[in-house]
Design goal:
The protein contains 4 helices and no strands. The protein has helices spanning 4-24, 30-47, 50-61, 66-88. The protein is mainly alpha-helical and 93 residues long.
Amino acid sequence: MGNAALQAEVLGLLDDQLRTVLSTIGDASPEERAALAHGLKGAARGVGAFALAEGADAVEKAPDLDDNLRRLDELAQAVLTFIARRRNGTHNG
């Protein structure tokens, strides 16, 4: 991106979207889960979070599989940790 302010804004938007999805997807219907996952997949691809996008794609394709939901949660938590570290200036790991 090259622009630190833009990068922070984009990561902030992804952070917000991840938190919204994580707080609602567990109680959502299969159709709603698929829609949430679809939106997250596009956002993740847009910022280069391809593992997260793949996890969201798996939920979109099979929204009833608990393993897919658990994996998406793990990937989302990793991305949230990354974003928090960027905000705090600790970019390692």
